[in-house]
Amino acid sequence: MTPTSPLAEETRTDATAARPENADLGLEWVEGFAALGPRFFTELRPTPLSSPTPSYWVGHSDQVARELGLPADWRNDALLEALSGNIPLAGARPLASVYSGHQFGVWAGQLGDGRAILLGETAGGLEIQLKGAGRTPYSRMGDGRAVLRSSIREFLCSEAMHGLGIPTTRALCVTGSDARVRREEIETAAVVTRVATSFIRFGHFEHFAANQQHDELRALADYVIDRYYPACRHNERFGGNPYAALLEAVSERTATLLAHWQAVGFCHGVMNTDNMSILGLTIDYGPFQFLDGFDPRHICNHSDTGGRYAFNQQPNVAYWNLFCLGQALLPLIEDQELALAALESYKTAFPNAFENRMRAKLGLADAADGDRALIEDALKLLAAEKTDYTIFWRRLAQYCVDGNIEPVRELFIDRAGFDAWLLSFLERHTHTPREQAAELMLRSNPKYVLRNHLGQQAIEAAGRRDFSGVATLLGLLESPFEEHPGADAYAGFPPDWASTIEISCSS
Q1: What range does the domain containing 190 cover?
Q2: Is 190 helix (H, G, I), strand (E, B) or coil?
Q3: Which of 62, 113, 226, 274 is catalytic?
Q4: Are residues 50 and 164 in the same domain?
């Protein structure tokens, strides 16, 4: 890939072209979530955009298209309209699901898909969803729309997380429109086509538990177990209680997810229970951020005035959210002590998974006494000077390749402190071949992450109908551990103005 000459997305310019009646992805659809029945959702079609000009392609992922089984020439005018919510998609049964949840630690009551519409599930087991396709019965005071800036951020970060090996929902494409949407200011509308094995959240379970709809709660839990956690039916733990086994399995997946986040320096920003995936996927990209300088107390969401979702709070918040899920499942588990026992594994699963991720970043294939101290000392060193997190780890990996420590050392004012840590690092590697350590570190420490300023530059260009920045970033983020000759500018330090970018719940 050559970042200096990316291919821009094709656009439609014929505003007078008549919209086709429908479009066809050529996929076989199955009932999936819709089989649960009308208490779980409302069937409705997306609301067509009112803009007099046609929609246009902003970005697309060929990787996701291949996973869906789409042909190479899948992007046509009819599908552009369908994936913008303007015309029906053949075979789809669109719906918006209902859920509830805790937001910023407070019970928010009924929520639901306020701007997301599930088109359906493919025979390959993937759900396809449009985000920004209009109002639903669960929109509350919202307009059901998404804007260009937030849609580009979600599209790119979905694919960036996948490139990093982090469990996530995916994004097939972003389409844009000249239709106006009011946020803090007037912006243009966009739609993200999201893809996931399931979009079921903790909040789905909270909804039926809070409303004492225990039959629906059981049906939902049985659906999730039978579809995604079948081993829970045959687990002898917890006296054979499949719902306690489900809670434990979700806890451990969530622990793994949080270990990934913390190791790569990812801040989610809005870890409400309705933004937590029952499959342990990263879901709902709003005010997220990859750390620049390492600040454990960093708050990426400017709406989070109390710092509930600060970077170093994320593992604890995840446990709190799991506790809420446990409360929701209690009518099925029927034993509070059993539910608490099912949550217990998170307390060991997270630190173990996190240490394993950090060991890999240090080039250590096996565990040894003193590893935790080595990891903690490295993080303390980074925090003391707010050293750039991604650059430090990548330069340390490069040092193991070429033996030149100066690019790493120059990141610190406290050279003596760094030298002392380096001595411990080298002592730990006494019996590890440098080539082996280097290989592990290069595939564990990305060169490219979706920094805020990179996303902002792509967004500003897209506002001028220049989508080359989106295409360039996508190519880098799909393979973030590779060097990509000519793209070093995308892996450099953030400019000073990056610190002024404010990302909130409207982002």
Answers
A1: 29-199
A2: strand
A3: 274
A4: yes
Helix axes 346-361, 371-385, angle to 10 degrees: 70
Q: How many residues does this entry show for the chain?
A: 507
Residues 39 and 148 reside in one and the same domain = yes
Total domains present in the chain: 3
Q: Determine the Cα angle at 289 with ends 252 and 97, to 5°.
A: 60
Taking the C-alpha atoms of residue 298 and residue 303, their distance in angstroms, rounded to an integer, is 13
Please compute, for residue 84, the number of CA atoms within 13 A of its CA located in the half-sphere on the CB side. Answer: 31
Q: pLDDT grade, residue 485 (50/70/90)? A: very high
Domain identity same for 331 and 379: no
Mean pLDDT estimate for the chain: 94
Residue whose pair of structure tokens reads 């990891």 in the numeric block: 375
Do 325 and 301 lie in one domain? The reply is: yes
Q: What are the tokens at 352?
A: 């173990």
For the chain, how are helix, strand and coil distributed in percent, rounded to 5?
Answer: 45, 15, 40
Checking DSSP bridges between strand 95-97 and strand 41-43, what pairing results, if any? antiparallel
- pLDDT of 352-380, one tens digit each? 999 999 999 999 999 999 999 999 999 99
Q: CA-CA distance, 101 to 110, in Å (whole number)?
A: 7
100-137 residue pLDDT tens: 999 999 999 999 999 999 999 999 999 999 999 999 99
Residue 43 maps to a domain: yes
pTM for this prediction: 0.94
DSSP summary character for residue 245: H
Segments of 82-124 assigned E as strands: 95-97, 100-103, 106-110, 116-122
Residue 295 annotated to the active site: no
- Dihedral over Cα of 330, 333, 338, 344: its sign: negative
Are 336 and 368 in a shared domain?
Answer: no
User: What pairing do the DSSP bridges indicate for beta strands 127-131 and 116-122?
Assistant: antiparallel
Last residue in a domain, options 151, 181, 199 = 199
Comparing CA positions, the residue from 310, 339, 127 lying closest to residue 250 is 339
Within this chain, do residues 261 and 167 fall inside the same structural domain, yes or no?
A: no
DSSP code string of 54-115: PPEEEEE-HHHHHHHT--TT---HHHHHHTTTSS-BTT---EEE--EEEETTEEEEE---SS
Q: Is the pLDDT of residue 45 over 70?
A: yes
Residue 434: burial class (beta carbons within 10 Å; 0-12, 13-18, 19+): middle
Q: What angle do CA 218, 219, 220 make, to 5 degrees?
A: 90
pLDDT over 80 (residue 96): yes
Model pLDDT for residues 281-313, shown as the tens digit of each residue: 999 999 999 999 999 999 999 999 999 999 999
Same domain, 50 and 184: yes
Q: For the residues 208-226, what does the mean pLDDT come to?
A: 98
326 and 373 co-located in one domain? no
Give per-residue pLDDT as tens, 57-88.
Answer: 999 999 999 999 999 999 999 999 999 999 99
User: What single-letter DSSP state applies at residue 72?
Assistant: T
For every residue of 446-486, DSSP letters joined together read: -S----HHHHHHHHHHHTTT--HHHHHHHHHHHSTTS--TT
